[in-house]
Design goal:
The complex is a heterodimer. By secondary structure, chain A is mainly alpha-helical. Chain A is built from 16 helices and 5 strands. In chain B, a hairpin with a 6-residue loop joins β1 and β2. Chain B starts with a helix and ends with a strand.
Chain lengths: 454, 166
């Protein structure tokens, strides 16, 4: 019976990955159930009863996810079946937590409308994702305009530093705002940067990977090929200085390193890049006061001086206490005091989750992210085209890295940053950008499916 | 709502999250480890192998060397983009291997030349000859410089693509 050896069988198995839309539909039902369960738990714990209000926080996202599913059935039938349910699950959990924080605020007499906004923003983001899947018939058109994408990314990154429209919130200049509307251009810039790097590296990867001399056990590229890495290092330090945010600059530089490493396979870039980044950050922490304060709050959050300083470690310490209060299984949604953490609905939503769902729940959430990123890398791995491979590596890695930077900040492993938790944190730009990433990954996976069939 | 009920709800929610994740993992297990479906594929392919090179096939699977002439009827792609596919070579006398579309065995691999190497039936043996390719052809890990006879079970590697004759 075993005439087919393992080596021949495994590649065949990899093509038998669940891509079917029916599978996705089943998962969506399940996820919608978990979403409803979370909302019900919040109401039971906070209001001691279930009310029809719940429907408002459940039905619109669930229906929109179903619409996205329908569009995929019509226009991208071969797309990956796990991404949409996983992203919707994270989004739904985020809505439940924000709703819970709103209820706590209402109980204190305040009026908070984050959850209502988050519901509509989620729907809007999913509709944008569906539109991307529907209107971009082939992601390879993106390959034609790498420099345009790069220029737009730089423009967007510079925007918050512009006078009048630029906004500084909590010490970080990451927002652009007109009146009540504010927008975080960096979130969109990360997609454009991934497109730019993919396009640039596809055409340059041979020069970057083949030429160079051997030094010890590493291949060192020619001096003139070091240009891009130096330029980009300077640019991300510029971001650090202009936007006063370490997280954003780690995110963009990390994205660049991963993509250049993937394209060339040379450890040199990673080694040199990490050294440069760490050096740059350390120097910045000495030279710039605001970076230095973040470092102090990170290194010694429990000192009275840092705890009481404006923009000091108060928030981090509250988060750490909250998570400690959550223990292993958590206080249950609605059972803890996550409202005590400043900005629990956006930057610190992971800490709120950690308190109410406990270590077990927080790990579950991290596992969901892991699966999401894994699917993205899987899409990259199975695609025959180099540009698509690089682009999907970049797009999925950027979600993973952003989550790492945010969760490390919340847990005190890295200095706090102004990055948002993908899919969960309250905030429209982040939701839209991350849903567009999902849409692009779905588009890419669909095209690889067709090629395999052909 | 009693304390106990709330406690159960709270445990239940985390449990549901984990059940969801674990069941997803079990569904994509084949993707992660590549097990389960093997027997199914083996079953599907068994008749084809038995019909094709019955003697050679079964001998190969048992690993027994005997006096039987090695008479391959197909090329099995082992790794690379076309891994898992088979190319029928019964009745052929000469096969061109390369990236070019006119090749008999098309290798879609960055490291393959357009006309990379050639398999020729000399008497009863298949002989592998490198056509001065850029990155070389490897037979059982050794670079092919002069034409080499293919033994049973030998693997041929071009770039990241490997295949064998069966």
């Amino acid at each position: 019976m075993s005439n087919v050896s393992l080596t021949t069988a495994i590649p065949m198995l990899l093509k038998a990955v669940p891509r079917s839309r029916n599978f996705e539909a089943v998962l969506l039902f399940w996820v919608a159930g978990i979403h409803a369960f979370a909302l019900a738990q919040v109401q039971l714990a906070v209001l001691q009863k279930m009310s029809w209000d719940m429907l408002f926080y459940w039905a619109p996202p669930a229906i929109t996810a179903a619409i996205v599913h329908y569009i995929l059935r019509k226009h991208a039938v071969g797309a990956d079946g796990l991404m949409l349910p996983l992203a919707y699950l994270l989004n739904g959990l985020g809505i439940a937590m924000i709703y819970r924080l709103d209820l706590a605020e209402a109980a204190r007499g305040g009026i908070e409308i984050y959850a209502d906004r988050q519901v509509w923003l989620s729907c809007f983001a999913m509709i944008v994702a569906a539109a991307v899947v529907r209107l971009v018939p082939n992601h390879l058109v993106l390959r034609r305009y790498p420099y345009l994408a790069g220029a737009m990314a730089v423009f967007l990154l510079m925007l918050p530093a512009a006078p009048v429209i630029g906004k500084t919130i909590n010490g970080a200049t990451l927002w652009v705002g007109v009146g009540e509307l504010s927008f975080q251009p960096g979130e969109v810039a990360k997609i454009l940067l991934a497109i730019f790097f993919a396009g640039y590296l596809v055409s340059k990867k041979d020069t970057l990977s083949e030429i160079g001399s051997r030094l010890l056990f590493m291949k060192v590229p020619r001096a003139k090929d070091l240009g891009p890495i130096l330029l980009f290092w300077a640019a991300s330090l510029g971001v650090l200085v202009l936007q006063r945010d370490l997280g954003t600059s780690i995110l963009y530089f990390g994205l660049f390193l991963v993509m250049i490493y993937t394209a060339t396979g040379r450890a040199f870039y990673v080694g040199a890049g990490l050294t440069m980044m760490v050096t740059g950050a350390l120097v910045a922490s000495r030279v710039f006061d605001y970076v230095g304060r973040r470092f102090d709050a990170w290194l010694d959050p429990f000192s009275a001086e840092n705890y009481n300083a404006a923009g000091g470690s108060y928030q981090l310490v509250q988060a750490l206490f909250g998570m400690a209060n959550g223990d292993v299984i958590g206080t249950g949604l609605g059972g803890g005091f996550p409202q005590l953490i400043p900005l629990a609905e956006s930057d610190f939503i992971l800490a709120a989750m950690g308190e109410e769902l406990g270590l077990a729940g927080l790990f579950a959430i991290l596992a969901i992210y892991l699966l999401l990123v894994y699917r993205g890398l899987r899409i990259a791995n199975s695609h025959p085209d180099d540009f698509s491979r690089l682009l999907s590596i970049g797009l999925s890695f950027v979600i993973g890295l952003q989550l790492f930077v945010v969760s490390a900040g919340v847990m005190g492993l890295l200095p706090m940053t102004g990055l948002t938790t993908p899919f969960m944190a309250a905030g429209g730009s982040s939701l839209v950008a991350n849903w567009v990433i999902i849409a692009l990954l779905l588009r890419i996976s669909d095209s690889s499916f067709k090629r395999v069939e052909a | 709502m009693s304390e106990l009920a709330l406690f159960l709800v709270r445990i239940g929610f985390v449990a549901v999250l984990w059940i969801f994740i674990l069941s997803l993992l079990s569904v994509i297990r084949a993707d992660l480890y590549g097990r389960r479906v093997i027997s199914k594929i083996a079953r599907q392919n068994a008749p084809a192998l038995a019909g094709g090179g019955s003697v050679a096939g079964s001998v190969a699977s048992l690993g027994i060397e005997d006096g039987e002439v090695f008479d391959p009827t197909q090329i099995a792609m082992l790794t690379g983009r076309t891994a898992g596919t088979f190319i029928d070579i019964a009745g052929k006398r000469e096969l061109l291997i390369g990236r070019g579309a006119s090749s008999d065995v098309v290798i879609s691999d960055e490291f393959a030349s357009n006309m990379h190497s050639k398999l020729v039936l000399v008497g009863e043996d298949w002989v592998l000859q490198d056509l001065n390719s850029t990155n070389g052809t490897f037979l059982d890990g050794r670079k092919v410089t002069t034409p080499a006879t293919i033994r049973q079970g030998a693997t041929i590697r071009i770039g990241t693509t490997t295949f064998e004759l069966r």
